[in-house]
Write a structure and sequence with these properties.
By secondary structure, the chain is an alpha+beta fold. It is built from six helices and ten strands, in the order βαββββββαβαααββα. The protein has a single domain, classed as L-fuculose-1-phosphate Aldolase (3-Layer(aba) Sandwich). α2 runs parallel beside α4.
């Protein structure tokens, strides 16, 4: 596991603000809880970094609420642990967000995935060594040369959605991001349920 896992690689334009949407935050916590209990979102104590994140469409078109950076260790989240992503620039490697915390290190990837299809309503990004090994190159899989949290990773999901089976499966493996998997759905419930289904099938 690389020591730079979990850290923001894009240029973050963060506006500190009050919690943006308590209702959406409660929905995120409701689906984050089973993912956290399965160890799919959590904290690498040996590295001192959190992993995994979750988001849902919220606010104006194109905006979404996402877990804040380095919140993986939090057992029970509140609206203080989420940020509203208001804009992004893939080519410029920049994300604009507001809220009590800065957006997750994977906010760029979430933004690019939401831009693929207005029907995508929720996204979960989890870590599991066993699921990652079991489904690498079996589910749609990103290029192993591409690192997490970069414009190149965001473009990988564009590629997989266009013709790599990601649209159909709603699940993908991040080959260049050890242990990382992504789930999407028309709702946050569908995205989380798809990911939890992998655990239960195993």
């Amino acid at each position: 596991m690389s020591l730079d896992e979990g850290y923001v690689k894009y240029q973050s334009h963060w506006t500190p603000a009050a919690a943006p949407d308590a209702e959406a935050a409660r929905l995120l916590e409701a689906w984050r809880r089973p993912l956290y209990e399965e160890g799919l979102i959590g904290y690498y104590s040996e590295l001192g970094i959190g992993y995994g994140n979750i988001s849902v469409r919220c606010g104006a078109p194109g905006q979404f609420l996402i877990s804040g950076t380095q919140t993986g260790h939090v057992a029970v989240t509140t609206d203080a642990h989420y940020a509203l992503v208001t804009d992004y620039d893939l080519e410029g490697n920049a994300v604009w967000c507001s809220g009590p915390v800065q957006a997750s290190s994977e906010a760029m990837t979430h933004a690019a995935i939401y831009a693929l299809d207005p029907g995508i309503g929720g996204i979960v990004h989890v870590h599991s060594k066993s699921l990652w090994l079991d489904h690498l190159n079996e589910l749609p899989t990103t290029d192993p040369a591409v690192a997490y949290g970069t414009p190149a990773m965001a473009r990988e999901f564009v590629r997989l959605y266009a013709g790599g089976g990601f649209r159909e499966s709603g699940l993908a493996v991040m080959a260049g991001h050890e242990e990382g998997l992504i789930g999407i759905g028309t709702s946050l419930a569908e995205a989380a349920t798809r990911m939890l289904g992998l655990v239960r099938r195993g």
